[in-house]
Specification:
Number of strands: 24
Strand content: 15-25%
CATH class of the largest domain: Alpha Beta
CATH architecture of the largest domain: Alpha-Beta Barrel
Shape: globular
Helix content: 25-40%
CATH superfamily of the largest domain: NADP-dependent oxidoreductase domain
Largest sheet: 8 strands, mixed
Radius of gyration: 28 Å
Strand order of the largest sheet: 8-9-10-7-11-12-13-14
Length: about 675
C-alpha cells in the first residue's frame, strides 16, 4: 500500500481545508466524509467528489478507509477517535486532542494496544519555519541571563452564545481552542533549550476573563521551566493580539510573526528574525509551496505507511502532557467544564474497558470465592470521580480484580468512588474489595463496626471481602480486637480478616488467640514491603515487613498486600508523564527521610543497572522483585495515570533470575 485513503468526520471549515490540502499530497487520498447533517454531508461530498455517510458505524466499517481525520467540535473528539480506534482506523485528530487529560490517556492507551497510528493535529510542527526556530536556539547556548519565551494567539470573534467558541458544552473558550498553540510552542522551545523534546513547567500561574457563558474569553499564563527559562503566553477570542513569538535573553532574540500559520495567508512566505549584539539582524526566510496542512497530512500518511503508531513531531507523551497543562490552566482561572464531571463525560458511557485486553495474571485467593489478580489497585489518590472511573475502568479492563480502599481514604471519597464504579459497572461479583477501618486516633474496638457500616453504605455493598484493621493500638489488648472482629464477621459484614501496620509480635499473638478460641484468625497483612526498606515511617504508625516477618508470613501462608510496594517513587529516575496533584503525593523531603540510607541507595544503584541491562524501567525491576518473593504477595499499586498502571502491569510479567534476585537483595 503506497497511498492512504482518508475519511473525514465533520464537514466544517477545517474539514474543507483538509479536503483542499490533501490534493497536494503524493501519498493520500480523500474518499469519504461522515456527518449527521445529511444536507451538509452531501454538499461536502459533492464539493470534493467523495462518498457521504450519515451513520458513524457504516462510515468506520468501510474497508476502503485506512485513516480518519477528526474535524468535529472539541467535545466530540473523544467519542469519534475512540470509535475509529475500535474499528482499527488510524487517526489524525485536530487539536486540542481531547477535552481533558483523562480522555487523552484512554485514547493513547487504546491506540498503542491496537497498534493504531494516533496523532494530535498541530500543523506548525511539521513546517520548516518551526525547524528554523529550533535550529537557531543555539544563539542562547552561552547566555547566563534568563531566557524569556513570549507567545500569543488572539482574535476578536463576534459570534453567538451557542457558537462552538463560546459554548461550554462544545469545549469553547480561548485556552482549548487557541491557547494550546502558545502553550505547546513554549514547551517545545524550553525542552530543546534543555536538550529534550519538550519540557514540563515547574510552576504555572494564570489569570483570565470569563465570558457570560462560562468559558474563558482570554487568558494569560506565566510558566517557569527552570531558574533560567520562563514563558509568558496569552490567548483570546475577544481581542486581537500580536500573534507572535519572541524568544529573548539580554539583547539576543528570535522573533516570529504568525508562528502558527507559517505564511499560510501570505502565499507561503514566512520568516524568522534573529538579533545578536555586534552581529546585526538576520532574516531566515521560507517559501512553502507545498502547504501547511498538506505537510501534516503527508507526514501522517508516511507514518502510517511506515507502520508507526506515533509521530516524532508530536509524540503521545507530549500530547498527554499538553492536555494535562491545558487542564491546569483552566483550573487556575476556575473554569467549570461540563465534560469534566462524570455525569457529562463521554468516558462514563464509553465502557472503554471492554476494548482492553486483560493481560494481568488471574489468581485465586484462599477463602475468597472470586477470581483475583496479581496486583491490587489503591483507591486513595483519585482526585475526582472522573479520574477514579478512568483508572478503575482501565485496571479492570486490563485484568485487575482487587481494589484497596479504607474508611479514611480521601475523606471518604475513596469508598464512594469505588462503590459508584462497582455498582455502575455491575461488577460486584467480579472484584475483591479490601477495606480498612479504625485508623489512629480511633484505633479502638468500639470504632470498628460503625466505620465498617459507613464504608459499606458509601460502597453500596453488603459485605467487605477482606477487612484489615488500619492501625494497631498497643494500649488495647490484642484479644479485644480479635473478639470484636469475630463478632462483626459473624454478623456477615466482613469476610477474610487481617491487619495493616501491625508488628510481628502482636500479629502472631492475634492469630494464636483466635486459633485457641476456634474463631477466624488473621490471614491477611498489609504492611509496607519493597526492595527498599522503610527506615522511618512514611506516616506515624506505619510498619514494614522485615526478613523475619516475611518468613513467618510464608510459613503461616498469610496473604501479604504490601502498600508502597515500589517505595513511593524511590526507584524512578525521571517521570515520563506528569500526573495530577494530590495531597498524598511523595515529596523529596519524605524520600530523604524514609528511604535514603546506604543499603537502599546500593539497591537502587543495582536496580538502575539491571533495568538498563534488561531494557526496563527501574521501578518495574523493583516491583518484580517484590512479586518474586512469594506467590502469597499481592502488591498494592497507586498509579495516577494509565501509563503508570501499565508500567506496573508489565512489571508483573517480568521474570528475574535467581542471580538477579540475589544481586538486588545483597546490594
Amino acid at each position: 500500500m503506497k497511498q492512504i485513503n482518508w475519511g473525514i468526520i465533520g464537514s466544517g471549515s477545517i474539514a474543507s481545508a483538509f479536503g483542499h490540502s490533501i490534493k497536494s499530497t503524493s501519498n493520500s487520498k480523500l474518499i469519504s466524509v461522515f456527518g449527521r447533517n445529511i444536507d451538509a454531508a452531501n454538499a461536502f461530498a459533492k464539493k470534493f467528489n467523495i462518498d457521504a455517510y450519515y451513520q458513524l458505524e457504516d462510515f468506520l466499517s468501510s474497508a476502503e478507509i485506512d485513516a480518519v481525520y477528526v474535524a468535529t467540535p472539541h467535545s466530540e473528539h473523544f467519542v469519534h477517535t475512540l470509535a475509529a480506534i475500535k474499528n482499527s482506523k488510524h487517526v489524525l485528530c485536530e487539536k486540542p486532542f481531547a477535552m481533558n487529560a483523562y480522555e487523552s490517556m484512554i485514547l493513547i492507551d487504546l491506540a498503542i494496544q491496537s497498534n493504531i497510528f494516533l496523532m494530535e493535529g498541530f500543523m506548525y510542527r511539521m513546517h520548516p519555519q518551526t525547524k528554523n526556530i529550533l535550529e537557531n536556539l543555539n544563539i542562547f547556548s552561552d547566555t547566563k541571563e534568563k531566557i524569556l519565551i513570549e507567545a500569543s494567539f488572539g482574535f476578536a470573534a463576534e459570534v453567538a452564545k451557542d457558537h462552538r467558541l463560546r459554548n461550554p458544552n462544545l469545549g469553547g473558550g480561548a485556552i482549548l481552542d487557541i491557547g494550546c498553540y502558545p502553550l505547546t510552542m513554549c514547551k517545545l522551545i524550553a525542552g530543546h533549550l534543555h536538550g529534550a523534546p519538550f519540557a514540563e513547567p515547574k510552576e504555572f500561574s494564570a489569570s483570565g476573563q470569563l465570558d457570560e457563558t462560562g468559558v474563558d474569553s482570554q487568558s494569560h499564563a506565566h510558566l517557569i521551566f527552570s531558574e533560567t527559562i520562563e514563558a509568558k503566553i496569552s490567548c483570546a477570542i475577544n481581542e486581537n493580539f500580536a500573534n507572535n513569538l519572541v524568544i529573548s535573553s539580554n539583547q539576543k532574540s528570535i522573533t516570529v510573526n504568525q508562528p502558527w500559520h507559517c505564511g499560510q495567508f501570505q502565499d507561503g512566505k514566512s520568516s524568522i528574525f534573529i538579533s545578536i549584539p555586534n552581529a546585526g539582524k538576520k532574516e531566515i526566510s521560507c517559501l512553502d509551496e507545498f502547504g501547511l496542512f498538506a505537510r501534516e497530512i503527508e507526514h501522517a500518511s508516511n507514518c502510517i505507511l511506515e507502520k508507526k503508531i506515533e509521530s516524532d513531531f508530536i509524540t503521545h507523551a507530549e500530547t498527554q502532557s499538553n492536555m494535562f497543562w491545558l487542564d491546569q490552566w483552566r483550573e487556575k482561572i476556575k473554569i467549570e467544564c461540563p465534560k469534566s464531571s462524570l455525569k457529562n463525560s463521554p468516558i462514563y458511557s464509553s465502557h472503554f474497558f471492554k476494548m482492553k485486553i486483560p493481560i494481568l495474571k488471574e489468581t485465586t485467593l484462599p477463602k475468597i470465592n472470586k477470581i483475583g489478580s496479581r496486583l491490587a489497585l489503591g483507591c486513595d489518590n483519585q482526585t475526582s470521580d472522573l479520574h477514579a472511573f478512568t483508572m478503575f475502568d482501565h485496571f479492570f479492563g486490563s485484568g485487575g480484580r482487587i481494589f484497596d480502599t479504607a474508611y479514611i481514604y480521601n475523606d471518604g471519597k475513596g469508598d464512594k468512588y469505588l462503590g459508584d464504579w462497582i455498582n455502575s459497572r455491575g461488577v460486584t461479583n467480579d472484584v475483591i474489595v479490601i477495606g480498612k477501618a479504625a485508623h489512629t486516633p480511633q484505633c479502638e474496638p468500639q470504632f470498628i463496626r460503625p466505620q465498617i457500616l459507613e464504608s459499606l453504605d458509601r460502597l453500596k455493598l453488603s459485605k467487605i471481602d477482606i477487612f484489615c484493621l488500619h492501625r494497631d493500638n498497643k494500649d488495647v489488648p490484642v484479644d479485644e480486637f480479635v473478639h470484636a472482629l469475630s463478632e462483626i464477621r459473624d454478623e456477615g459484614l466482613i469476610d477474610v480478616l487481617g491487619a495493616s501496620n501491625w508488628e510481628l509480635d502482636r500479629f502472631s499473638e492475634a492469630r494464636n488467640i483466635a486459633l485457641k478460641n476456634k474463631i477466624e484468625p488473621f490471614s491477611v497483612l498489609s504492611n509496607n514491603f519493597s526492595l527498599a526498606e522503610m527506615i522511618e515511617p512514611v506516616w506515624p504508625g506505619c510498619v514494614g515487613v522485615n526478613k523475619e516477618f516475611l518468613e513467618y508470613l510464608i510459613k503461616e501462608k498469610i496473604l501479604l498486600f504490601p502498600w508502597s510496594s515500589q517505595a513511593r517513587g524511590f526507584f524512578i529516575k525521571k517521570k515520563e508523564q506528569i500526573s495530577n496533584n494530590h495531597f498524598s503525593n511523595p515529596t523529596l523531603d519524605e524520600e530523604m527521610r524514609v528511604w535514603h540510607y546506604p543499603k537502599n541507595l546500593k539497591r537502587r544503584d543495582k536496580c538502575f543497572e539491571l533495568a538498563e541491562k534488561r531494557g526496563l524501567e527501574p521501578i518495574q525491576i523493583a516491583l518484580a522483585y517484590v512479586l518474586h518473593q512469594s506467590d502469597l504477595i499481592f502488591p498494592l499499586i497507586g498509579p495516577r495515570t494509565i501509563v503508570e498502571t501499565n508500567s506496573s502491569i508489565e512489571a508483573s510479567k517480568v521474570e528475574l533470575t535467581a542471580k538477579e534476585l540475589q544481586e538486588l537483595s545483597q546490594a
